[in-house]
Amino acid sequence: MKLKVIQLFFFIFIINGLSAQNFVGKWNASQRGTSFFLEINKDSTFLLIKEKDTLIGNPMVYQDSLTVSKIQLDTTTTPHQIDLLVFSNDKKEKITVFSYLGIYELLSADRIRIRFNFGQTDRPVGFFPKGNLETLIFVKTP
């Protein structure tokens, strides 16, 4: 029994690592003529651009101090969860400036479906209704 629990733990650990590693890179999405660009770095920092406007990324300034943007993934839930978090870069106290909570699904090695909670406080529970404005399909670019 203990061996099965240990095997399950390592399986979950490996799957989490592979899923997080799959996110590193540059991604593009388009929705109703609007283009999005998402770049995720190995250190979990990211940049999200809509058309030519930076929505979230490093460096940003909030109340006269720089911020740090981090991505967090949770593959232990169904659907998998993704959080885009922006923290103050204050050495004494890290304050979450804002966050986009979302869910995601790996469609293939180079396609990810993500739904964010743009303008809402709760995390989305699913990808439906089909064609909603919060769901984007990102394609990895070389």
Layout of helices and strands, plus pairs?
Layout: H1 2-23, E1 25-31, E2 34-40, E3 46-50, E4 53-56, E5 60-62, E6 65-74, E7 80-88, E8 96-108, E9 111-116, E10 135-141
Antiparallel strand pairs: 1-2, 1-10, 2-3, 3-4, 5-6, 6-7, 7-8, 8-9, 9-10
Describe this structure in words.
This protein is an alpha+beta fold and 142 residues long. It has a single domain (2-141), classed as Lipocalin, CATH 2.40.128. Helix content is 15%, strand content 50%. The protein is built from one helix and ten strands. The protein has one helix at 2-23, and strands at residues 25-31, 34-40, 46-50, 53-56, 60-62, 65-74, 80-88, 96-108, 111-116, 135-141. Strand 3 (46-50) and strand 4 (53-56) form a beta hairpin. The longest helix is centred in the N-terminal third of the chain and has 22 residues, at 2-23.
Write a concise synopsis of the structure shown.
The protein is an alpha+beta fold and 142 residues long. The chain contains 1 helix and 10 strands, in the order H-E-E-E-E-E-E-E-E-E-E.
What proportion strand? Answer: over 45%
Radius of gyration: 16 Å
Mean pLDDT over the full residue set: 80
Number of helices: 1
Helix content: 10-25%
Order of helices and strands: HEEEEEEEEEE
Low-confidence stretches: 1-18
Biggest sheet descriptor: 10 strands, antiparallel
Question: What number of structural domains do the residues give?
Answer: 1
The assigned CATH architecture is Beta Barrel
Q: Which class of secondary structure composition applies to the elements?
A: alpha+beta
